[in-house]
């Protein structure tokens, strides 16, 4: 989330799209008092992603914008998990029977990859790599839940769409930086970002079909 003169436009677009996805999800929970269609397991994985990635919040100051965005992502992800677990009305709408993906496999596999494949063997860099690997696959429980439920409500569909679009913007940023910066070596983020975006391909296809036909979003079982 470091802004530079060369990477600011696509990076800022990615950050804003990511923030928009979170706002859409919070809007859904606040207005409907429901988390139906939302995977709590995916939200827990995202909370872990932000906590692991932003350890530098206590050691490195980059900019006010950077610090605020990190805090927003951490606080909002924890707030969503809290609502889904403890809010009296929201937790009753949780689709426990559909949200059965064994997400702890994703957690431990990502951590093992981080221990093996990292750019520097330091605590901060290993946890950064772990967060990148985990984020690439954290959406899987959510996508599986949506496929099992079939119908997707409007706010949930927009949430997942914006979440996928944010990573696509980041890929554009990485491509630009790779071409313009001789020492750009964040290969872990690039590969994981491509994998993450690829996981959304099926959802994007049906999302655009529903938008084109002005019909309700439905995913094949």
Automatic annotation (TrEMBL):
Keyword terms: Endoplasmic reticulum, ER-Golgi transport, Membrane, Protein transport, Receptor, Transmembrane, Transmembrane helix, Transport
Query: Does Nucleotide-binding count among this protein's keywords?
Result: no
Annotated localization: Endoplasmic reticulum membrane
| Chief localisation class | endoplasmic reticulum
Where does the signal peptide begin and end? none
Which membrane topology describes this protein?
Answer: Multi-pass membrane protein
Q: What is this protein called?
A: ER lumen protein-retaining receptor
Give the species this sequence originates from. Answer: Psophocarpus tetragonolobus (Winged bean)
């Amino acid at each position: 989330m470091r802004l530079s003169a060369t990477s600011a436009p696509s990076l800022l677009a990615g950050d804003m799209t990511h923030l928009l996805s979170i706002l859409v999800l919070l809007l859904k929970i606040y207005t409907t008092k429901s988390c139906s269609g939302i995977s709590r397991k995916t939200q827990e994985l995202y909370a872990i992603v932000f906590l692991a990635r932003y350890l530098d919040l206590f050691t490195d100051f980059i900019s006010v914008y950077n610090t605020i965005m990190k805090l927003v992502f951490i606080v909002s992800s924890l707030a969503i998990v809290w609502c889904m677990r403890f809010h009296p009305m929201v937790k009753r709408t949780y689709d426990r029977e559909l949200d059965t993906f064994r997400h702890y496999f994703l957690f431990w596999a990502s951590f093992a990859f981080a221990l093996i494949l990292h750019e520097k063997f330091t605590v901060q860099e290993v946890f950064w790599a772990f967060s990148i690997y985990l984020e690439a696959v954290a959406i899987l429980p959510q996508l599986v839940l949506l496929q099992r439920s079939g119908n997707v409500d409007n706010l949930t569909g927009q949430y997942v769409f914006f979440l996928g679009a944010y990573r696509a913007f980041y890929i554009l940023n990485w491509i630009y930086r790779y071409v313009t910066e001789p020492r750009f070596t964040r290969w872990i983020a690039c590969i994981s970002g491509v994998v993450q975006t690829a996981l959304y391909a099926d959802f994007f296809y049906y999302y655009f079909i529903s938008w084109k036909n002005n019909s309700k979003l439905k995913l094949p079982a």
